[in-house]
Amino acid sequence: MSQSTAVGDPVSSDSAVPREKLEEIYDDIRSHVMFDHELYGCLNCGICTATCPSAHYYDFSPREIVQLLWTENLEAIHDAMQEKIWACAQCYTCAARCPFHNSPGGLIMIMRETAIKHGMQSAKDVLRPFSRVLMKLVATGNQLAPNMITPDAFADWGPNIAKVNAPLNVLRKAIPVPTLHTMDTAWEVNIRTSIELYTIWEATGVLDQLETIDENLFDVISDVMDEKRADYADWLEEQQAD
Questions:
Q1: CA dist 115 to 86, 170, 174, Å?
Q2: Does an H or E element contain 18, and which?
């Protein structure tokens, strides 16, 4: 197949993927620092799929993922990245059972990172519901907060719904640990800790990936962290003045 040939499903309305793009995606997967540690070969025994929880409920097979990467089936790799790789629960049962010491779960994590890097629509669709959680995490240092737990959101709790209707703000203030006296977050996180976490995400490229997937969320988070950094700088100046 020539380098300029495009690959696509002849009965699909989706645009064909140029061969160069398929090779670029595979090269990014293959060059990942963990790739050679996760893939040694394949005996085609099927133990990984037989013990995979996700394989019981979805059109998903860890063995298929290993075979695609082992045989460098570029078209099928790209196809798997549109849906199948997102079915993995990342339990790593496959890695624990594989007699060849492969880790299909680890390979899928690499493929997910690559899908995010290339801004694939599948990655955007999967991560979109988590935008609120990510915003909460970056802005406050917590994923969840008491004020997010409401009866309307947990209607299937049955009799236990009464616990949600409890005076949580009063109960939180009764907790001995002062950092838990809040309803806006699970606990209060030091502003310096928030900035340090953000700096790590910034230095490791996590925020670059976020910008690729959701530019609006990236802009909001950047504004939040700019404010935190400014507040922290002002606090430091006050401490030095004292």
A1: 10, 45, 46
A2: strand 17-18
Show Cβ contacts of residue 225 under 8 Å, excluding neighbours closer than 6 positions.
138, 194, 195, 198
Residue 25 sits at φ, ψ, to 5 deg, of -65, -45
In this structure, what token pair is assigned to residue 104? 């299909």
Q: Name the H helices within the chain.
A: 19-30, 35-38, 47-50, 62-70, 74-80, 93-97, 104-117, 121-127, 131-140, 161-164, 168-173, 191-203, 206-213, 215-241
pTM of the model: 0.74
What is the DSSP-derived secondary structure letter of residue 25? H
**82 Ramachandran zone, left/alpha/beta (phi>0; psi -120 to 50):** alpha
- For residue range 90-105, list pLDDT tens digits in order: 999 999 999 999 999 9
Fold of domain 15-118: Fumarate Reductase Iron-sulfur Protein; Chain B, domain 2 (1.10.1060)
